[in-house]
Amino acid sequence: MSLSSPILSKPVLEDLPYVEAVLNYLTPMAEKPVNYTYEPPAGVPRQNGVYEAHKLPIRNARAIPSPVGDAPRTVSSANARDLSLDREGFAYASHNSAVRDFYDEDEVRRVYYPEAEQLLADVTGAKKVLVFDHNLRNIQRVKQGENNIKEPVKRVHNDFTAKSGYSRARAELQASGTDDIEELLQHRFSIINVWRPIAQPVQESPLAVCDAQSIAPKDLVAGDLVYRDRVGETYAITYNPAHRWFYFPQLQPNEALFIKCFDSAEDGRARFAAHTAFDDPTSPPDAPPRESIELRALVFYGN
Questions:
Q1: Which of the ends of the chain has fewer CB neighbours closer than 10 A, N or C?
Q2: 91 within 8 A of 61, measured Cβ to Cβ
Q3: Whole-model pTM above 0.85?
Q4: Please, are residues 195 and 248 in contact by the beta-carbon 8 Å criterion?
Q5: Using CA atoms, how far apart are residues 289 and 258, in angstroms rounded to an integer?
Q6: pLDDT tens track for 36-69
Q7: Distance separating alpha carbons of residues 284 and 287, to the nearest angstrom
Q8: Are 77 and 95 contacting, i.e. CB atoms less than 8 angstroms apart?
Q9: What is the pLDDT confidence band of residue 11, given thresholds at 50, 70 and 90?
Q10: How confident is the model over 91-125, as pLDDT tens digits?
Q11: Termini Cα distance of the chain
């Protein structure tokens, strides 16, 4: 398996259209970052990290050329434009969902979870896929006080760490009643986000994804994510000028973006694809707020 990326070579990168936008990185710190998902006790800060803004080029991934001699792939065949979850750590696909109302919790779990599991199996060739949670994002509904809706995250981050990928996998397998947990965890698995718009094409707060091959281990800073009933661990990211950032302008409701947030393999495959929402300077001032859903799934590859 070649992990070099001729489609993202320097000449190709320099020819890609881009926007310049501000991304917020963690300022290096001595103590472990801590972020509460709820209002903490009096005197305790919601988060202890300080973030610094860096203005960077974010390249249009739709403009990445297909390999010479190849016709553009149809999305059903796998990773569009030959982007690779195992190399860059992200990819996208066309996908029509049968979900009528993504704000209907029961319908999402009943209809969209199985759709996404099948889609990920098709894209990755996995032997088993288990979707274990989802987030809806809509800043307008957050301001209206709706529960279980979140706003876009405008800090560079990755959802899991080398440690929490394993602990979350075990917890979710136990919760699902899976019998062969030890067998599954002995072989390679990953955690992949499936991200998509759920209303209009995204104009406000689009998602930027960093080429995993451009992220150095020293850029990843493990931090506690504190819930009322548990403590998770995620990566904040410190700035590195080598980072290569991409986005898919005007992402449509019939398109899905895949982001690898963990891989148990340590053989050079992409393990962590950092990502963040950002303020697109080309967005119309009256652009509707982004409405999106992301599912997180365990993807097991077997032997």
A1: C
A2: no
A3: yes
A4: no
A5: 21
A6: 999 999 999 999 999 999 999 999 999 987 543 3
A7: 5
A8: no
A9: low
A10: 999 999 999 999 999 999 999 999 999 999 999 99
A11: 16
Vertex 219 angle, CA 216 and 223, to 5°: 135
Write the single-letter amino acid at 138. Answer: N
Residue 123 and residue 127: Cα distance in Å, rounded?
11
Other Cβ atoms less than 10 A from the Cβ of 19: the count is 20
**CA separation for the pair 191, 297 (Å, rounded):** 5
**CA 258, CA 95: separation in Å to the nearest integer?**
12
Residues in contact with 45: Cβ distance below 8 Å, sequence separation at least 6, in sequence order? none
